Amino acid sequence: MAEGENVMIQYGKDKSSQIDLIGYVMNVTAKITSITLPNRISVGGTIYTLLHPKIQSDFEIVSRK
Prior knowledge:
Layout: E1 6-11, E2 18-23, H1 24-35, H2 45-50, H3 53-56
Antiparallel strand pairs: 1-2
């Protein structure tokens, strides 16, 4: 599992102010999201190996180029 420090930045003081999250984990999340097609899910290798083999067959391996 990726770990690292994340920073939350809020622009303003009211509840409707924009919030940005930055850091290593957010960067990795953005990359995973960018390769995941709509109505699909992506899991890492560790999670994949924990799935029952019957469920594993519903997944396809995608590599980032």
